[in-house]
Amino acid sequence: xxxxxxxxxxxxxxxxxxxxxxxxxxxxxxxARDAVEAQERLSKESYxxxxxxxxxxxxxxxxxxxxxxSYGRPLPSVVLVxxxxxxAVEAFEKHAxxxxxxxxxxxxxxxxxxxxxxxTASERAARLVELMPHLSTLTQxxxxxxxxxxxxxxxxxxxxxxxVVQAEGNYxxxxxxxGSSLLRESISTIAxxxxxxxxxxxxxxxxxxxxxxQEIRPCATGEYELxxxxxxxxAVTRTYKKNLKSLAExxxxxxxxxxx
Length: 260
Prior knowledge:
Blueprint: E1 2-6, H1 10-21, E2 28-32, H2 35-44, E3 49-52, H3 61-70, E4 77-82, H4 88-93, E5 96-101, H5 106-116, H6 121-139, E6 146-150, E7 153-157, E8 162-168, E9 171-176, E10 180-183, H7 187-194, E11 199-203, E12 206-209, E13 213-218, E14 224-228, E15 233-236
């Protein structure tokens, strides 16, 4: 069995490599640091299984699957290895054979590798039915409150009341409709924690609450302007423009400027 690991986290790549190295049926495995590098490897080499992360810079794991399918080439059996349970259904629609949630155990990864050797459509459907009850509990936040440790006390706020999160040096500022809170945290960490609440990254230092977005306007520079309720506007850089698609469940009308 030839396996390709695709993950932008060095620790995850190392852990998966150790699991593969211990298996006698793995004759070879390679690692890619992101989906772009994986695409290059897949154009030159063939693999039986791909252990694929979803959330990666430039190109996500699901985007990579979409590109590979459009080429019409046979795909390796794809096992998603990710911290984000909410993408499970889309992953199976794109013919992933299993879905391993981080943090993972050696036993769970080995189970997925065994299953990857049997990838008929009926088995994929059965696996999705088996996993969905477990995944649905993971995608729902256990509480509607965020606990913020600040100045020796803990402040509880509702994430749905936060309009914008902005990086301020080593801190992030959570701006609500009335008031704001400053906490020592990186914007990347807070972005992962707030993703279940429909926060979208539009700039390296800005997250917005999708519920407060009213309008998107394209700019001549290739960037976008996003207007929030209340009239405040934010620039959306080209790096993050693909995230704008997640602002709505579906899109109506003609025009495809977000696909440019």
